[in-house]
Amino acid sequence: MPQQISFIGLGKMGEPIARNLLKAGYDLRVYNRSTEKAEALVAEGAQRAEVPFEAVEPGGVVFTMLSNDVAVKEVVAGEHGFLHRLGHEGVHVSLSTISPETSRELARLHAEYGSQYVASPVFGRPDAAAARKLWLCVSGPEEAKARVRPFLEAIGQGSFDYGEDSGAANVVKLCGNFMIASAQEAMAEALTLAEKNGLQREQVMDMFAQTLFACGIYQNYGKMIAQQRYEPVGFQMELALKDLNLALDTADQVRVPMPLASLMHNRLLTGVAKGRGGMDWTALAKGVAEDAGLDKEQE
């Protein structure tokens, strides 16, 4: 009999991840606040729960992929949360980008009920999730990590273990998103400089992506920024702003100045204030163009 897994959160990332678990042969029970988002997976064989606690089996494994700290806490310990039901020997795997302190708080809460918590935030856009090309950062109890390892192998191309501190994986995730945002700002500024000097943005980026910066971040995001094409939306600007806020909060807690992160926070905040929160975060390049007098508004 196939092993049952629960999955909560079927957004742009959650749905393809859940689908890969279903394709791997696991018996999947899903929950999403907007029920229509579960319909495709139900048609493919998943079971749908009406509230979070109905999705979970006592002593089972539940994955969550949600947009922020509040949403994760709500499905765990809210009115219809699964904390009590998961119970002894259960494991909660959080794929969400949340604060390290929230992860540690959730780990303590689970421990009170005999369950365990594993943080496993992911790197990759929705197309990478669908292709099982995600990179996963993992931290939490060794026993729990060993139990969920086969499931993680079904959704990604590799994982990196950061020990038993449940917040450690989230620190790495925030570091990574800060670095990606900074790389996007650098590409946007460089390509705007090239454009104002009469060069073709795509031609310049193509050279860099093949030589000095021959890696996925520069090749994929660089192409979007060079073409000034901010669709399809893989990661919304408002969520990127949330992550920069989390990075700065985490830095403040341990007294680490991050002037570049502050700059990126302001860039994203400006974009959201201008109504771009629902656009892909590469649209931060619009702000760079506007600062340089190249206002090519296409919204």
What does this structure look like?
One of its GO terms (molecular function) is NAD binding. This is 3-hydroxyisobutyrate dehydrogenase. InterPro entries: 6-PGluconate_DH-like_C_sf, 6PGD_dom2, 6PGDH_NADP-bd, HIBADH-like_NADP-bd, HIBADH-related, HIBADH-related_NP60_sf, NAD(P)-bd_dom_sf. Belongs to the HIBADH-related family. This protein has 14 helices and nine strands. The chain has 299 residues and is an alpha/beta fold. The chain has two domains: 161 residues, NAD(P)-binding Rossmann-like Domain (Rossmann fold, 3-Layer(aba) Sandwich), CATH 3.40.50.720; 121 residues, N-(1-d-carboxylethyl)-l-norvaline Dehydrogenase, domain 2, CATH 1.10.1040.10. The strands form two sheets. Strands 3-2-1-4-5-6 form a six-stranded parallel β-sheet. A three-stranded mixed β-sheet has the order 7-8-9. Helix 9 crosses helix 10. It is globular and about 65 Å long.
In short:
It comes from Ktedonobacter racemifer DSM 44963. With 299 residues, the chain is of the alpha/beta class.
Q: Would you count the extended β strands for me? A: 9
Q: Helical residue percent?
A: 40-55%
The helix-strand sequence is EHEHEHEHHEHEEHEHEHHHHHH
Strand order of the largest sheet: 3-2-1-4-5-6
Going by helix content, strand content and strand pairing, the class is: alpha/beta
Number of domains: 2
Uncertain residue segments: none
Report mean pLDDT, rounded to a whole number.
96
Look at the structure and name the CATH superfamily of the largest domain.
NAD(P)-binding Rossmann-like Domain
> What is the level 1 CATH name of the largest domain?
Alpha Beta
Q: Please, how many helices?
A: 14
State the major sheet: 6 strands, parallel
Distance between the termini: 51 Å
> Which word captures the global form?
globular
Alpha-carbon Rg, integer? 20 Å
Query: Which second-level CATH architecture of the largest domain applies?
Result: 3-Layer(aba) Sandwich
Estimate what percentage of residues fall within beta strands: 5-15%
CATH topology of the largest domain: Rossmann fold
Domain 6-phosphogluconate dehydrogenase NADP-binding: 4-160
Domain 3-hydroxyisobutyrate dehydrogenase-like NAD-binding: 167-286
GO molecular function, one term: NADP binding
Protein name: 3-hydroxyisobutyrate dehydrogenase
